[in-house]
Design a protein that fits this description.
Length: 388
């Protein structure tokens, strides 16, 4: 049994992709560059690692073309897996490509991504538009993407169901002073189709009042979510910068969350850049149909049911450190600039209504009285970047 739990690799590509994107503060195409990345997430019985390679090249000073290849190797013995199935390994491969077109103060973008694994296929098309105003002090950006996925189940060839995801975004970036920039962003996502995990079960109490049993999850076939974020960056007199972010999220399933992040970036001499960050995430309300333990199994008494811990009430805190070094070696003179970069995050997850129901705990404390679940994770990103 596979795919009982899924982890998003926190910030594994977010940091890199941000550096690949066009400048937020002026209509300028991204620089020609190549990035080679290795990422690793380890925590909660799950290990995810793999490489990624991105190449970007400009054409005639008006177009920037890029392509990316990304691989996840997943090894999972998570709590869901050990209580409902067996440990598994699998591989996910993602390829994407796109281009940015510059016309005066406007950048138009188009992208395509394909992600493939043994029981899930995803295709996503994306469109973007950004426009500078008021002497390049203001930038408005619009984005739309549509994902068309196919959900399958290993061992059950008849399971092949669609899932569609539409994402709408709008953002405004404003240069307030020569040292202070603020950006606000709003995003709406519409999900339709098979949205649950075909391997995961919702647990319920057996008729003896002690045994834990499992029945298939059943999610709504639609989900609408909205997020709003504000970000700010202040440049300090000694070349360093402080960046702050606040974000709120809510959806039609009843989930509500907030997160806050503070980041400090400090250059040292001509070759080093150091970074430290602290992030807090609080999911103060879980999904309306979530429960750690359902009192009965009768499906007619429950329209929907789920026990995905990502739909529970939980929080996590992350502390991260990073360093970037620019090579000055003469043998690299055919590149405009070359850097080596290493980033590490330590993340602590704590759940308020999801219990650690491994067999030992259930036997020792009784079904529904197990200790609340928590775990720590480490994320490492190591990459080389070359500009040309």
């Amino acid at each position: 049994m596979k795919k009982l739990t899924a982890y998003s690799l926190p910030s594994a590509l977010v940091f890199i992709l941000a550096s690949w994107s066009a400048s937020l503060f002026a209509a300028v195409l991204p620089e020609d560059r190549t990035d080679v990345l290795y990422h690793r997430f380890e925590g909660g019985g799950v290990t995810i690692d793999g490489p990624s390679v991105l190449v970007r090249k400009g054409v005639a000073e008006k177009v920037s073309v890029w392509a990316n290849y990304y691989v996840d190797f997943v090894s999972s013995a998570s709590l869901d897996v050990i209580t409902q199935g067996s440990a598994y390994t699998e591989e996910r491969t993602e390829t994407s490509t796109g281009f940015d077109y510059l016309r005066d103060r406007t950048i138009m973008s188009l992208s395509y991504t394909n992600s493939s694994e043994s029981d899930y296929e995803a295709e996503t098309f994306g469109l973007g538009l950004s426009q500078d105003f008021f002497g390049d002090l203001s930038t408005i950006s619009l984005g739309y993407s549509q994902g068309n996925d196919t959900v399958r189940q290993n061992g059950s060839p008849d399971v092949q169901e669609p899932a569609q995801h539409q994402r709408f975004s709008i953002g405004w970036t404003q240069v307030l002073t020569k040292n202070w920039i603020v950006a606000v962003n709003s995003e709406t996502v519409i999900d339709e189709g098979r949205l649950d995990n075909p391997y995961r079960g919702a647990r319920y109490l057996g008729t003896d009042g002690a045994q834990q049993l499992f029945q298939p999850e059943k999610y709504p076939t639609t989900r609408n979510s909205d997020a709003f974020a504000i970000r700010s960056m202040v440049y300090l007199p000694y070349r360093a910068s402080v960046r702050a972010e606040a974000r709120i999220f809510q959806d039609s399933w009843g989930v509500k969350s907030t997160n806050y992040e503070l980041r400090y970036v400090h250059p040292y001499k001509d070759s080093w850049i150091f970074e430290a960050k602290y992030r807090m995430y609080d999911q103060s309300k879980g999904a309306d149909f979530y429960a750690d333990l359902f009192p009965y199994s009768d499906p007619d008494r429950l329209d929907f049911r789920g026990r995905d811990k990502e739909l529970a009430v939980f929080s996590n805190t992350a502390f991260g450190l990073g360093a970037s070094y620019e090579f000055k070696a003469g043998w690299l003179s055919f590149f405009d600039k070359t850097t080596v970069n290493l980033y590490w995050d330590s993340i602590a997850f704590d759940y308020e209504n999801y219990r650690d129901n491994n067999p030992e705990n259930t036997e020792a404390f009784g079904t529904g009285n197990e200790p609340l679940y928590s775990f720590n994770a480490n994320v490492v990103r190591f990459f080389l970047s070359a500009w040309y």
